[in-house]
Amino acid sequence: MLSVNNVAVQFGKRVLFDDVNLKFVKGNCYGVIGANGAGKSTFLKVLSGALESTRGSIEITPGERMAVLSQNHFAFDEFPVMDTVIMGHKHLYDIMKEKNAIYDNPDASEADSMRAAELEGEFGEMNGWMAESDAAELLSNLGVHESLHYKLVKELDGSERVKVLLAQALFGAPDILLMDEPTNDLDAETTDWLCNFLADYQNIVIVVSHDRHFLDMVCTNVVDVDFAKIRMFTGNYTFWYETSQLMSRQMADKNKKVEQKRQEMMDFIARFSANASKSKQATSRKKALEKLNLEEMTVSSRKYPYINFKPEREPGDVILDIENLSKKNEAGEYLFKGLYLRFNRGEKIAVLSRNALAVTALFNVLSGEDKDFEGRFEYGKTISIQYLPNDNSEFFTGDQDMNLIDWLRQYSKEKDESFIRGFLGRMLFSGEEVFKSSGVLSGGEKVRCMMSKIMLANPNFLILDEPTNHLDLESITALNNGMQEFIGNMIYTSHDYQILDSVANRIIEITPRGLIDQTMTYGEYLHSDKVKAMRAQMYGDAVPV
User: How far, in Å, CA of 200 to CA of 174, rounded?
Assistant: First the structure.
């Protein structure tokens, strides 16, 4: 068990959270949620001991082991992959290295041999002889091929490194597992495997994530960081969200009725207080009014931006035709080759690929950003497009001292400052924030600015490359709603399961051997035996994934 007793964290005058008392027990998975900056990651650091709390204490049942998903993707560059995973169980790894060092020492003394025998006994009790096979199984389940298991971590690409660090955290079934954004950079298959693994996990899991589907799949409890407090609720994320929305509506309705009653009494007093025959009744009403306290509904720190894509004109029958489209990388290798695709009205196509560069390359071509390609594509005459690139830095590298009003004014037909300020306000830039320099924006703020730019253009065709990157749960929810309500055409890619499943009505996947094209939802695509067989053939897998 993990206990949090009267914990507070304060930086200067700012209280991040205070008077936190929680108990985490085995068999449960706890999803930590809250607005950006609320203190989710800080809370995990306090639990792990990486950060000392201002007040209070953290207690762990004696003998229980804690593992933390490393956020430093380069910390183990000089170590073999297999060793890196086993390092997740530090005590086991230390024993293994010490006894191996004794065996490798030709000048080992009798005392050394006695020490090695002791270590062997402890190693056996910890099931150490299964360490490499257990680590190999974890790596394979996470999609790290056997051929990489004994390479140095620095030889792996970014997504493979993430999987190795995840295997490290999971290795040896720690009693307490802390993970901050574990699904970042994971493909759908790996995320699905992790969901199933954690759903069956019998120890304590505490996880911070912006992936709503992941939280729904694994969480038994929600830990909400808000109002400078941390409270625990039973249920997954959707249950918490719908319950909180219902409670807010009920509270608002209750307040509305109270306010209505108050107004009726005030009107009565105003009309009859001067009337002698009614004065006694008016006095009674006034006393009742004094006792009627409007119950204040606490305002959450969460803020939802307003994201609504409204096409200026309805598209015609011709949307987009792609014929024999191909694109090579700088090494002359094809990222995709010979693509044929025709859009129909109302289609929202999600693009998948094990090679994210192929998807970005396709979007760069279709948006007109990249002119170096083979084949052709043509939009209908009624089509107006807007593109949200994965890397939006070029939009913010010009005059970095330009404030947000002037930055957004560049993309608006309406130049009036009050109009621009109102638009920025909808995207959560209010008050003095509109004078913030565009050169100092966070990743999430830049994405919200780009969304504003797109909405001002009123397109009927959207190209979105990983639109949820850098966004918090509230902004992702608003974006999800905006994408669902959009009545134009869309082609996009995302790692967010819910945005894929709730928006797309057609799925295409770019593979080394061609295109898979299916009219179905993402959930249907992911679990279709027919699609699994097609993917195995297209990727050359021995076993369908």
Answer: 14
